[in-house]
Design goal:
The protein is α/β, with parallel strands linked by helices. Among the domains are: 4-197, 3-Layer(aba) Sandwich (Aminopeptidase); 512-620 and 629-646, 3-Layer(aba) Sandwich (Rossmann fold); 720-795, ATP-grasp fold, A domain (Dna Ligase, domain 1, 2-Layer Sandwich), CATH 3.30.1490.20; 800-922, D-amino Acid Aminotransferase, Chain A, domain 1. It is 37% helix and 22% strand. The protein is built from 30 helices and 38 strands. The strands form seven sheets. Strands 1-2-3-4-5-6-8-7 form an eight-stranded mixed β-sheet, with helices on both faces. A seven-stranded mixed β-sheet has the order 17-16-19-18-20-21-22, sandwiched between helices. Helix 22 runs antiparallel to helix 23 and helix 27 crosses helix 29 (867-883). The longest helix has 23 residues, at 199-221.
Length: 923
């Protein structure tokens, strides 16, 4: 495919200068991103560079005659191609953009796409993909790259000319998710579609990413053959234990030891290099010194290995030399299409009986089960498997990702989403490579399977550079990560122990339908502790129905309590437990049960465990049942029956916490998905124009009149005000506004005006304002600030004060916050945050999370504030933060809320010339 202009130029034997783009001038518009193809291979998309001419010629000369004809509508020789390429490289950035897909070292171009402007807002687009890369999704990814860049350049529509028989190109446009129109013309089809990446298009890219991630992980977790490079004859070494574990666990394919120093490893014939292995190898596990790993990886690439797990340490975690070694290793993998787990990891495992892969060096193999586990910490990995085995929590798959040079938690979430062997996903995270991408994937996966995560590292260092109230409040803790997990439905636990407590429940029991818990115990004290813990965690301990109480009275002694908690007293038998659990489980006011057993002298824990299991089996309405066996001998093995497993805990508080996490997750999952809300009446183009003006002078805090312009673009009501340059003009403005006014100073570097006397309220009359403006200038001069002007505002009536703000987090993107406002905003610390863009439900929930909310709702008979208007401010702030990533800090403080309507009394916005991340890269 090619534009008509290209075809005419080639036929006329004249250079065409309106297609493509040289490397100069594109840095701001486009950048390199790494993308994964449908089959799991990774390639790099980047702008065309001035040194690409020979590589691009080789690419086109390597295309088949059919591919050349579909691209150029003609058969071109090398001379014609050189002439056309010269025109591509001479095209200025404002006329057209080119992108290439590159693999290998030295780099090989495997795809080329470009667009050229037709008018100020229309452009033609054309593609070519290497024959061996066609059908793998590369064209769609290049289209997404071009569309995003074109949209930033003000191009609103793409057009393409396609030969009628080129069905594959038509499918490319349709599958990309753009709303296309196809028009017939003599001998050709014209395709027209918008450049804006719609939500549907982005969802299509996301679906392709999921398919690609699964394809990338198949050779790791379902390999046909495995080689251990560095396999050792000696047990007790990493290479020795790795090889032994693969054999001992019974891997269902061939396992090849690779060791140049011996011909036999643990009774198995060994090979000096991976290239000497006679059979195909999908997975190579590498345990050699770090300085040899890159060369071994090159040998794996020559062999055709599809996946490598690098156990060896001494890479990015070990300083600059290690980081460079890791980059070199990743380059080898990218050049060959191999994928990498690690380095500096402890291995992987898949307990599927048709696979039986244990490529770890730990002493205990994982117990088969239905929990997928990923850890960033190799040191924790060994302990995690042992602890899971101790608790009876079986793993479907285990992956230690180490330094995450390639395969990450996001890839694993995509794999586990449709893995029939995995019901629950556990993550131990030390860092996020791409948190916004994690959020989108987790939100989707969490609708099918619960995700439980421990995130270590709660440092606020990332926010230290902020100077707004919003930035200061978000710097106080890792609330941004909490917000990410909350929105994505991820169950966050503080410790690994709590993670496994939750996993034990989710892996064995149905989700609770509500927060109402019934407690059955043979000891009053543990029952009260359990009830207190449950209510502290947001659960309810309701009184049982009269029918259930009568049923319990029928077999329990007089001293027993039958309301809730149900205290069977110490003399309770196993039969009492069975009948009580059956009765409470059938109560319509109960959503889940916690059964507590404190061992008396007469009754054995095993008898009670058997009775509780029998009651659970007999229950017609399955509800989650948790047990607490407060016994020095631990949990009875009976609770892990083959047909039914009941989670058990050492203390009642642990059971209550685990249940509360499951209840919150079930509630999140029951809420229908909601698209982000975009209020009407937003002037995004006006806001972008203002942003361009501010960035042209280098960014910084917006001037008061610019703040007013920007808020007006987003329909955020600022109190009536005048911006003036001197004291007399301030007096005139006060007279024009009438009534009482507020006077605020404008001075370079002045952030918190109230702290240095830069705000005076309740002024009336021209002379009073002039006199105060002069005094204010003197006060600020003594404090080191030079007053350049004043803001005179009409004094607003009293109301409930809140703060609404946003920051552009370098990792998480735009974050929106609200809380108790005014000068005490940071002191009170009453804040709720979400990642933008917000849904209408997000805005409503944020306000209701605040301790301040009763004031807004009408505290002690007071008038209710206009909460819907405040929700609108949140949504409009979210839209502003999403549209304008250069707005790195925004404070609306205070926002005064009335019975009807709201007013922003003060606003500050800072813009910086940052490079916002690509939508495709984020996803």
């Amino acid at each position: 495919m090619i534009t008509r202009r290209d075809a005419v130029a080639e036929q006329a034997d004249q250079p065409e200068t309106q297609a493509g783009l040289p490397g100069h001038g594109v840095k701001v518009l486009a950048r390199e991103i790494e993308v994964v193809l449908r089959d799991g291979a990774a390639v790099r998309l980047r702008p065309l560079r001035s040194d690409d001419e020979d590589r691009l010629l080789a690419f086109y000369l390597g295309l088949s005659p059919d591919s050349i004809f579909y691209r150029f509508f003609a058969t071109l020789n090398e001379t014609a191609l050189r002439r056309w390429l010269r025109s591509v490289f001479e095209t200025p950035a404002e006329r057209g953009i080119g992108v290439v897909a590159v693999i290998g070292d030295p780099p090989r171009i495997v795809g080329h796409a470009l667009y050229q402007r037709l008018t100020s807002d229309r452009a033609e687009v054309a593609f070519a993909v290497a024959d061996d890369f066609q059908g793998r999704g590369l064209g769609t990814l290049m289209l997404g790259w071009l569309a995003e860049v074109a949209s930033r350049q003000g191009i609103r529509q793409f057009e393409a000319v396609v030969l009628p028989e080129n069905r594959r190109m038509l499918d490319l446009f349709r599958e990309a998710g753009f709303p296309i129109e196809v028009h017939a013309a003599p001998g050709e089809l014209r395709v027209v579609f918008p450049t804006e990446l719609t939500e549907e298009a982005l969802m299509r890219f996301e679906q392709r990413e999921q398919i690609a991630a699964r394809a990338a992980l198949l050779p790791f977790l379902q390999p046909r053959g495995v080689a251990v490079i560095g396999a050792s004859r000696q047990r007790g070494t990493i290479g020795g234990e790795l090889f032994h574990n693969l054999l001992e666990f019974g891997f269902c394919g061939p396992v090849y030891p690779v060791n140049p120093n011996t011909s036999v490893v643990q009774s198995v014939v060994s090979y000096p290099t991976i290239e000497d292995v006679p059979g195909p190898v999908d997975l190579a596990v590498i345990a050699v010194p770090a300085e040899h790993v890159v060369e071994v990886a090159r040998q794996c690439a020559q062999k055709g290995v599809r996946a490598i797990v690098v156990i060896s340490a001494g890479f990015a975690e070990a300083g600059e030399a290690g980081r460079q070694r890791q980059e070199e290793l990743l380059g080898v993998c990218r050049a060959s299409g191999m994928r990498l787990i690690g380095p500096n990891c402890m291995g992987i495992a898949n307990t599927d009986p048709s696979i039986r892969l244990n490529a770890t060096f730990g002493p205990s193999p994982p117990t088969p089960g239905r929990v997928g586990f990923m850890t960033q910490s190799g040191a924790l990995g060994l302990a995690i498997i042992e602890y899971a085995n101790l608790l009876g929590i079986g793993l479907s798959t285990f992956v230690s990702v180490g330094n995450k040079a390639d395969i990450s938690g996001n890839d694993l979430l995509n794999y586990w989403e449709d893995d029939p062997a995995t019901d629950v996903i556990l993550l131990y995270l030390e860092s996020f490579g791409n948190p916004r991408k994690f959020s989108r994937i987790a939100r989707r996966v969490g609708r099918k399977k619960p995700i439980v995560a421990v995130k270590s590292g709660r440092s606020p260092a990332g926010m230290r550079g902020t100077s707004s109230h919003t930035g200061a409040m978000l710097a106080a803790s890792d609330t941004t990560i909490d917000a990410l997990f909350r929105q994505a439905g991820v169950i966050r636990t503080d410790t690994l122990e709590e993670m496994f407590d939750v996993a034990a429940l989710l892996a064995s029991q149905p989700l609770p339908r509500g927060p109402r818990v019934g407690i059955v115990t043979n000891g009053g004290g543990p029952g009260i502790l359990c009830a207190d813990a449950a209510e502290a965690e947001g659960l309810q301990v309701p009184v049982l129905s009269a029918t259930t109480q009568e049923r319990l009275r029928a077999f329990l002694p007089q001293q027993a309590s039958v309301q809730n908690p149900v205290d069977l007293i110490a003399s309770a038998t196993a039969e009492h437990y069975r009948l009580a659990v059956e009765a409470v489980a059938s109560d319509p006011n109960i959503d889940a049960l916690i059964v507590i057993f404190v061992p008396p002298l007469a009754v054995q824990a095993e008898e009670v465990a058997r009775a509780v299991l029998d009651a659970a089996r007999a229950a017609q309405d399955r509800k989650p049942i948790l047990t607490v066996f407060m016994s020095a001998r631990g949990v009875p093995e009976l609770l892990r029956a083959t047909d039914l497993t009941l989670p058990s805990y050492s203390f009642p508080e642990s059971a209550a916490r685990a249940l509360s996490q499951a209840v919150r997750y079930a509630e999140w999952r029951s809420i229908p998905l909601e698209a982000p809300s975009r209020p009407a009446g937003i002037d995004r183009d006006g806001a972008l124009a203002l942003t361009a003006e501010v960035l042209a002078r280098g960014g910084g805090w917006l001037r008061p009149e610019e703040v007013q312009r920007l808020l007006t673009c987003y329909g955020i009501p600022l109190v009536e005000q005048r911006v003036v340059s001197h004291a007399n003009a301030a007096g005139d403005a006060a007279q024009e506004l009438g009534g009482e006014v507020a006077l605020k100073a404008i001075a370079p570097g002045l952030v918190h005006k109230t702290d240095v006397g830069g705000v005076t309220l309740g002024l009336r009359g021209r002379e009073a304002v002039i006199e105060e403006a002069i005094r204010m200038a003197h006060r600020l001069a003594e404090a080191g600030y030079q007053v350049e002007g004043y803001v005179v505002q009409k004094l607003a009536p009293p109301g409930v004060e809140v703060i609404v703000g946003a920051i552009e987090d370098p990792s998480f993107g735009p974050v929106v916050a609200c809380g108790a406002g005014g000068v005490l905003a940071e002191l009170l610390g009453d804040v709720s945050i979400r990642l933008a863009p917000l849904t209408a439900r997000d805005a409503a929930t944020m306000l209701r999370e605040l301790r301040l909310f009763p004031l807004l709702a009408g505290y002690r008979g007071g008038p209710a504030s206009d909460v819907p208007a405040l929700e609108q401010v949140l949504l409009r702030t979210s839209a502003l933060a999403t549209d304008l990533p250069h707005a790195v800090e925004l404070d609306l403080n205070p926002v005064r809320v009335y019975e009807h309507g709201i007013l922003v009394l003060d606003a500050r916005i800072r813009m910086e010339p940052i490079e916002p991340p690509s939508l495709l890269a984020r996803r």
